[in-house]
UniProtKB/TrEMBL annotation:
Keyword entries, A-Z: Hydrolase, Membrane, Protease, Serine protease, Signal, Transmembrane, Transmembrane helix
Entry-linked InterPro entries: Peptidase_S8/S53_dom, Peptidase_S8/S53_dom_sf, Peptidase_S8_Asp-AS, Peptidase_S8_His-AS, Peptidase_S8_subtilisin-like, Peptidase_S8_subtilisin-rel
Lineage: Bacteria, Bacillati, Actinomycetota, Actinomycetes, Micromonosporales
Domain Peptidase S8/S53: start-end pairs: 231-450
Natural source organism: Asanoa siamensis
PANTHER family: CEREVISIN-RELATED (PTHR43806:SF11), PEPTIDASE S8 (PTHR43806)
Xref: Pfam families: Peptidase_S8
Catalytic residue list: D71, H235, S403
Family note: Belongs to the peptidase S8 family.
Protein name: Peptidase S8/S53 domain-containing protein
Membrane-crossing residue ranges in chain numbering: 491-512
First and last residue of the signal peptide: 1-29
Length: 525
């Protein structure tokens, strides 16, 4: 197989019921933390030549901005991402690091009464569901498939699991399924909101944020564990590289992200890029958005995915925007299950979200990019290269997709947000669409307001607050002197003198003629 086409050519078999990222399937065999790729860049990444984000770097590189990438995880192993990936959250891995069967989203996700995972609304933790109750499925990070309390035969599972303690110890002192011992079954333990240690995914910021909704309500209950640094697919890592990758050189070709000063917060909700209509996935994405806002203080959220719309998802997006977080989402790829041209896709079509279409190297709309009246802007989305999760090489997608285009726009949003933190999400979006390279009709359903223009989007700002973020502020810098200034001044003087001389000559002509006729004699003689 051509090594440059190894990325996104086949799909991984996954246990979550799958999802849709806005790009085609993947090409590497399943790995614990992603495909090991050593392939160098085979050509210069054309999007960087087309967009030239580096021209905006004297104004902003994105320093101080956190971009949450809700995707397949982000690996920090590649040199382009070294030191740029912060700890995040993994919805697919429990606190023990288990990557077992997480298919626990077949329930209604109404918040649950389980005192443990807060996600399964219908199953009462009765020992027969797919919720990590000791039957080996370990879906919500409650147990590790063995449930140290003897699989909790009484069906209560109120703290008996091997890591369902609430205190992060990974061992329930009583383990009799009645919630006694360290966990008390109600997540009272020592859960101070560390996010990963407590097995039940209670990422709170206070005592007993409550997987069961009890306590002081300060925390957000989510399932899973881990920091989001495992990317079995490669998609999330590539997106992160597009957004904030540092400068690297491969086979003589330069690679970098749009906003290399920004930092990435990975939130893993997906294993591969296939679409699923299961409502639980939208619930996980909604939880991931809230987590990004409330726990990780994200400034920008990148959603290179599509998923069925739900009230929970809409509310999470609205919450992010209310908290002044810029939300950027892929318009989707026509032909994927549930994606039709002209019909809105979500979360891109929600109010306040920047919906991104894709173009090719000729600035033409990519045929697979979903068109519709919700499309705001476009960016490169074909023949895309970026860092691989392992091996130090580069993944390549010939087909591309709106996923990757979304990364470029999120990078521009990070540049703007770092340059002027006073702008609201609506003002950041307005800046991006108004400064885009507009199509002839100014807006259309295929590319929205046109291709994003990083340097113009940042440089057109009126009130930068870059100094507060450690950026160089050039708002009051005088324009550089023109190297032709002296020449220009001389030219003006010569032109004025030339005009004056011409007028004198014209005035002298009749005088000379009259003088000759009179033989230069005085008048009256």
């Amino acid at each position: 197989m051509n090594p440059r086409s190894r990325f996104l050519a086949a799909t991984l078999t996954c246990l979550i019921g799958a999802s849709s990222l806005a790009a085609p399937g993947v090409a590497h065999a399943a790995a614990r933390c992603g495909p090991n790729v050593v392939d160098p860049l085979a050509e210069a990444p054309w999007p960087l030549t087309r967009l030239r984000p580096d021209l905006a770097w004297p104004l902003s590189t994105g320093v101080g901005v956190k971009v949450a990438v809700i995707d397949s995880g982000v690996s920090a192993n590649h040199p382009a991402l070294a030191g740029k990936v912060l700890p995040g959250h993994d919805f697919l891995t429990d606190a023990n690091g288990s990557n077992g069967n997480e298919d626990n989203r077949t329930d209604n996700d109404n918040g649950g009464n389980a005192n443990g995972d807060g996600r399964d609304g219908d199953d009462d933790r009765d020992g027969n569901g797919n919720d990590g109750d000791g039957n080996g499925n370990d879906g919500d990070g409650i147990g590790n498939g063995s449930d140290a309390g003897g699989s909790d035969g009484n069906g209560n599972d109120d703290g008996a699991g091997s890591d369902d303690n609430g205190d992060g110890s990974g061992s329930d002192a009583d383990s009799n399924g009645d919630g006694s011992g360290d966990s008390n079954g109600d997540d009272n333990g020592d859960d101070n909101g560390n996010g990963n240690a407590n097995g039940n995914g209670d990422v709170g910021d206070g005592d007993d944020g409550g997987a069961d909704g009890s306590g002081d309500g300060a925390g957000l209950s989510v399932r899973g564990g881990g920091d989001g640094g495992c990317d079995e697919n490669g998609h999330g890592t590539l997106i992160a590289g597009i957004i904030a990758g540092g400068e690297t050189v491969s086979s003589g070709f330069r690679f970098h992200g749009v906003a290399p000063g920004a930092r990435i917060v990975p939130i893993r909700v997906l294993r591969d890029q296939r679409r699923s209509v299961e409502p639980g996935l939208s619930g996980d994405i909604a939880d991931a958005i809230r987590l990004a806002v409330d726990e990780f203080d994200a400034d920008v959220i990148n959603l290179s995915l599509t998923t069925p719309p739900t009230a929970e998802l809409a509310a999470a997006v609205a919450h992010a925007i209310d908290e002044r977080v810029v939300v950027v989402a892929a318009a989707g790829n026509t032909g994927e299950s549930g994606v039709e041209s002209g019909r809105p896709t979500y979360p891109a079509a929600y109010p306040g979200v920047l919906a991104v279409a894709s173009v090719n190297a000729e600035d033409r709309h990519v045929a697979s990019s979903t068109a519709g009246d919700f499309v705001d802007v476009a960016a490169p989305g074909e023949r895309i290269a970026g860092p691989a999760p392992a091996g130090g090489g580069y993944l390549f997608s010939a087909e591309g997709g709106t996923s990757f285009a979304t990364g470029y726009v999120s990078g521009v949003a990070a540049l703007i947000r770092a340059y002027d933190r006073g702008l609201s999400p609506a003002e950041v979006a307005d800046r991006i669409v108004r400064t885009a390279d507009h199509p002839s009709d100014l807006w259309n359903a295929e590319v929205g307001h046109g291709v994003v223009n990083p340097v113009r989007a940042v440089g057109a700002l009126d009130a930068p607050a870059a100094a507060a973020a450690g950026e160089q502020s050039v708002r009051n810098a005088p324009p550089p002197p023109s190297p032709l200034g002296a020449v220009s001044t001389t030219a003006v003087v010569v032109a004025v003198l030339g005009v004056a001389l011409a007028l004198l000559i014209l005035a002298a002509v009749p005088i000379v003629r009259r003088g000759r006729r009179r033989a230069w004699r005085a008048a009256g003689r």
